[in-house]
Amino acid sequence: MNPKSKLNLILHKVQQYWSGNAVNQNKGMVENLQRYGIIQSRKVAEVMETIDRGLFVPNGTPPYVDSPIPIGYNATISAPHMHATCLQLLEENLQPGMHALDVGSGTGYLTACFAMMVGPQGRAIGVEHIPELVSSSTENIQKSAAASLLKDGSLSVHSGDGRQGWPEFAPYDAIHVGAAAKEIPQPLIDQLKPGGRMVIPVGVLFQDLQVVDKNSDGSVSIRTETSVRYVPLTSKEAQLQG
Ligand SMILES: C[S@@+](CC[C@H](N)C(=O)[O-])C[C@H]1O[C@@H](n2cnc3c(N)ncnc32)[C@H](O)[C@@H]1O
């Protein structure tokens, strides 16, 4: 073997080692979330194993630690335990063929998870108001197991004010809001299907993760799941001013 091929082989082996290691670490993160009872279902474990969080965090940051990570523009990727909690709460509303809306989609991680769960016959829509994050999240998704769903159009990420929802593909079986609202935006309630569920952090200093279920008569039932701390659901200008 000539020296160049030898070097290529070594580089290939190093690459394989590192990518294999990343997969193991993502699996380890999922196993920890299962051990602590945050992931309770096989389906949520499978989707979090399939969508590698390492592809969604900025280079040089520790992807598998259970903590939020800054992604620029005064935003963060939420902690793995929050992603797992929201996926658990929405699991029944993320069946194949269903429609899911991810407001404040940030890195695109949860939008990709939703897309894997609703499958090619369903729709997973991300709405994010920072255009640069829309572009980087699209690149992240392209590297992930959800790339084919982005290509076939069952997954899409849009630039816009998520407080208005995304009427084009409403009504939604599942709505996730990744930033804390002062109060639940009415357009999001309107775009929820009867039988649908929304998970949304609500509050300013003290925030609750609220679970909003729309009943068959159009009324809503709201309960608090837990206390949380998210960046605010606000205007682009207010967010960039910090
Ligand atoms: C906690 S971060 C990202 C969460 C995302 N689930 C993730 O883990 O990557 C919340 C996101 O909401 C976005 N955001 C805040 N207000 C918004 C609004 N009015 N419309 C759309 N996106 C908004 C922020 O830019 C930020 O990317």
UniProtKB/TrEMBL annotation:
Q: Keywords assigned by UniProt? A: Methyltransferase, S-adenosyl-L-methionine, Transferase
Q: Which reaction does it catalyse?
A: [protein]-L-isoaspartate + S-adenosyl-L-methionine = [protein]-L-isoaspartate alpha-methyl ester + S-adenosyl-L-homocysteine
Keyword Methyltransferase annotated: yes
Highest taxon of the source? Eukaryota
According to its UniProt record, what is one Pfam family this protein matches?
PCMT
Q: Could you tell me the Gene Ontology terms of the biological process aspect for this record? A: methylation; protein repair
Q: What class of enzyme is it?
A: transferase
Give a yes or no for keyword Cytoplasm in this entry: no
Gene Ontology MF terms in the entry: protein-L-isoaspartate (D-aspartate) O-methyltransferase activity
**Stated family:** Belongs to the methyltransferase superfamily. L-isoaspartyl/D-aspartyl protein methyltransferase family.
Which NCBIfam families does the record cross-reference, listed alphabetically?
A: pimt
Q: What is the name attached to this protein's record?
A: Protein-L-isoaspartate O-methyltransferase
